[in-house]
Amino acid sequence: MTSSPKRHLRARLGALALSCSLVVFAGTVLTPAPAVAWDPSTTHQGLLEAALTRSALHLRWMDASDLQRGLFTDLRIDPALLSVEERRMIELALRQSHADLGAQPLGGPGSCPRADAPPQTQLFCVDRDLWQQPALGWLRLGMIAEVSPPARHVHHFLDRHDAEAMVWEDRELSPALLRIRQARSNGEPAAGVATGTDFSGKA
Question: Are residue 173 and residue 143 in the same domain, yes or no?
């Protein structure tokens, strides 16, 4: 028993209509939203670099040290001389920092192999367990340490209309939504916002 040509045509038109609907739906749903990004000049790194430039710290340091010290001078930190809290802060900041930030020092605990190890394995060894990087790198790492864990961002704000303002309001987002986003960013449960058990942003 064969189907009529009209039935074949109707089935093909139905399949074509369904395919077109799916294409339109997918195009609507899968269309990428506009990218959202920070203005680089308002990020912590941008503000740090602006502060260094405006303060002429490098020039003043070079002048005071007879051209011996500056932002690009290597400085070393001995982990053995740090308190437990200081060392933990540095190690946490190192884990949080990205390679492109320029805040990853050479050396550090466990970076130096034994004396009889091949030379190529000592590329990142400085001297025993010491960390070493330029002063600028340490400033950048300090910037990361200040906002680790991420919830400490809650105390970093600037009211562009009143630089002396002690409080800052986001008129686009409610306080509850901001707290929930902060908790999620810090890896904490949203329920902690209601119970007051999440990290408050204080050290």
Answer: no
